[in-house]
Amino acid sequence: MSEKKVLKKNSSGFCRAARFSALLPAVILVLSLCGCSAPGFSGSVSEDIPEDTSPVTQEVFAMDTHMTLTAYGDAAQDAVSEASDRLYRLDRDLSASDESSQIYALNHRLSDHVSGDTAAVLSASVRLAGLTENYFDISVYPLVCAWGFPTKEYRVPSGEEIGILLSHTGMDGISFDETTGTVTFADERMMIDTGAVAKGYASDVVAGIFREYGISSGLISLGGNICAFGSKTDGSDWNIAVQDPFRPSDPDAYAGIVSCSDTFLITSGSYQRYFTEDGKRYCHIIDPFTGYPADNGLMSVTVVSSSGTEGDALSTALYVMGLEKASEFWKNCDEADFEAVFVTDDRKVYVTEGIADSFQSSFGTPQVISRG
Ligand code: AMP
Ligand code: MG
Question: Is ligand 1 within 6 A of the CB of residue 286?
């Protein structure tokens, strides 16, 4: 598998600040939907695939999501094979429903210890909950279950039930000793779910494997989580589409295109999983403060970040915050370096200023959120 041009390799991993540049004229749709189960879908991605090199592509179904790994270069086959195996292992380890997982063991009080990837995800989750003022909150799992999302037996719980469950949630009730790997819950009914960060963590892991194999060009698509790995084989940027959240089942419909390299783009949206009752849509992202599905005028949030783990937790948190609070959060956040694209339910697109020049909107001129 030869490449016509030798690419500069970023051997130290992704730089802290993602690189963006002017948009390429042509966008070829090559990958479509991913995702989850009915009734909603995950986001989609459109990319330029150079025609003069052959990628190695492998499909994986893990974490309830269709995933596609694409790599270019001599070691591409080995890299995607190892990455696939690792994704299946991560799926098993991080699942809240798989009885052999460490998360299941914690939730059912079969063990109070975690290790390896589970410990890394828990550690990141505790940090990112703090960073987001607990808008990202892995302890909402009892509420997620009450709304029927894990079993797809959807229901609207009573206000009384939600009130009771809220008293068994909250990150303050979880303590994690990183040295021993011990997790302590404040009460017996608390449970956790790393679903809002697991795919982002997995994309970091796959990117790490690609780097180990010396891959300099690839795409990692884990549902609504995309990693534009390196740059295209001709050295130019990837063009990654933000799914049109109003037409989730149409892979050719996008709200805009981000031109980027060495970057993670992670989307949370009500369209990805939801149910409708009495004409009202209830989505899978729960406001940890009310116990109800987030419903604040946003259709989707795409976070553009140099870290998949951070991007995933942030996309969930920003979705719950809503546009106004999320914009303030972005303006004042010193601890994470990210940009964001927001699509509102009145079909407007808002982008943070760091990405404004590399984002091409399909929904008219986007509003730019600036720090000034
Ligand atoms: P994402 O698609 O990354 O936004 O993650 C949504 C998933 O994370 C849901 O399906 C739930 O399992 C879980 N979840 C829901 N609300 C939250 C929240 N506020 N913080 C953390 N995890 C959540
Ligand atoms: Mg997330």
Answer: yes
